[in-house]
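Contributing new records

If you add data, match the layout below exactly. Sequence lines come first and carry their own label; structure lines follow with theirs. Keep one chain per record. Anything else will be rejected by the validation script.
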Amino acid sequence: MHNAFRTGLLGLTLMCAGAPALAIEIAVVVNPKNPATRMFSEQASQFFLGKSSMFVPLDQAEKSPIRAEFYQKLSGKDISQVKAAWAKIVFTGKGVAPAEMHSSAEVKKAIAADVNAIGYIEKSAVDDSVKTILVIP
């Protein structure tokens, strides 16, 4: 009986270890005074991957879980692929990599100060200081 319990516990532990982390909803946000009201994922991808300079993109901290999840959901790219894309853009003089913020609060503060800024935060962190133009489930 004791071995059956141990085997069941081991199975449950392995099952949980293989389960993906709970996904969060991510809001792409801009300054409330920005005229943009909606955006498609493909459009947002253009700004965050340096293919358009219409907005000033703001990134979350490199090792933050939201950053990895954002780029994976938005473009299907992992952080190393995104860094490589930006390295090429910066090296050729075609752009400047997004400023890195260390929290959603910092992203909101930077967006409040720049009508052309665009960033991403947890949907649960959205307040009146930013305007949501895209939600990534």
